């Protein structure tokens, strides 16, 4: 069965999976929960506790889970799964990359932390700063890129491009390669690159890690902007390089 948990902050829906779940459980608990979120015009923030009392799903329960999952994805703000079951954790982490909302797995003792995470979504976003003299936008990223982070970076770049023909340089600054939270973030990033690459002169990756250097060389060969890799601590050098105008070759 699915037990509704009402001991949660406003705006969060929570359940606990117990025993073997059937379609009836979804119809009587989950469907009304999704319908209420739609009526109230809010995106779903969902907490699901799965402990040792959970034994799986019946065939019709599995089908209901898939159908409702597809429905909820369109309105999902975030989902926190609280569980110590290895197979539940692994399955959730794999599926998270393909879901549009924010999904995170927490240990069984981290229920309160999971609730705080849901309340704070989308959490701390990437920050940007613009150096007008150099014509460089610097984006500081502290975690895997999310859709909202890409939107923040795109807004800063578009703000510059609204008054200029091009942006001399863009710098991505992170302690290590952040990657992407999910497929939606990757798609948003690719859309940003495709729409802006002809108007950005140079891209500097001030990120530690040898694989980033390899990625920079590949990106430089495929994309219009010149791309170069710097260490995280070389942020000043990265900004100076990204903002340097390419001088025309001297005539013979």
Low-confidence stretches: 218-222, 246-252
Main sheet characteristics: 5 strands, mixed
Helix content: 40-55%
Query: How many helices?
Result: 8
**What Rg, in angstroms, do the CA atoms define?**
23 Å
Order of helices and strands: EEHEHEHEHEEHEHEHEH
- The secondary structure category is alpha/beta
Order of strands in the sheet with most strands:
1-2-3-4-5
**N/C terminus separation:** 82 Å
Architecture overview:
It is a single chain. The chain is α/β, with parallel strands linked by helices and 252 residues long. Helix content is 41%, strand content 28%. It has helices at residues 23-39, 59-73, 86-96, 111-120, 147-161, 183-196, 210-222, 235-243; strands at residues 2-5, 13-21, 44-57, 76-83, 102-106, 127-131, 136-140, 167-174, 200-207, 226-230. A five-stranded mixed beta sheet has the order 1-2-3-4-5, with helices on both faces. A five-stranded mixed beta sheet has the order 6-7-8-9-10, with helices on both faces. A hairpin with a 7-residue loop joins strand 1 and strand 2 (13-21). Helix 1 (23-39) runs parallel beside helix 2 and helix 5 (147-161) runs parallel beside helix 6. The N and C termini lie far apart (82 Å). Mean pLDDT is 84; it is low at 218-222 and 246-252.
